[in-house]
Fold this sequence. Notes:
By secondary structure, the protein is mostly beta strands. Helices cover 13% and strands 53% of the residues.
Amino acid sequence: xxxxxxxxxxxxxxxxxxxxxxxxxxxxxxxxxxxxxxxxxxxxxxxxxxxxxxxxxxxxxxxxxxxxxxxxxxxxxx
Length: 78
């Protein structure tokens, strides 16, 4: 029997809204989430390919893995 891949990894992602506080280096940012927690986040690949500019004060969507809630990926701008 072949194993079934139901893309469980994508379903386990947590997405929160946050505000960019500062640019740390290149594509790394410090983000203040809606629940007043500061985390570090980096640009997702599609955001990097589109060369979207993220500035301090922008509202963004941050995706987290359930294994590491201190590091996120910026997947979109609001």
